[in-house]
Amino acid sequence: MDIGNGKLTCVHYAVCPTLKAMKFTQDRPAGDVNYIRAYGPGRINVNDRLLKVSLVLTPAMLIENWPPQRFEDITLQHLETALALEPEILLIGTGPSLQFPEAQIMAAIQQRGIGLEVLDTAAACRTYNVLVSENRNVVAVLLMI
Question: What is the CATH number of domain 36-142?
Answer without folding.
Answer: 3.40.1230.10
